[in-house]
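Q: Hi! First time doing this. I have a protein sequence and I read that you can turn it into a structure. Is that right? Here it is:
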Amino acid sequence: MDLVAACRAFVSVSEHGSFTVGAAAARTAQSVVSRRVAALEQRLGERLLDRSSRR
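A: Yes, that's right. Below is the predicted 3D structure, encoded as structure tokens:
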């Protein structure tokens, strides 16, 4: 796992409040951003983001 890319993906999603918007802002596919955040969560052993479709 590229830890820097995973952290950047997390920050982008956090700042934009959405995986879709965060991925677009980072100019990365949403599926890639989702996988990177999931890998970061697994490495840290904690859930970082709520993935529900409701805010």
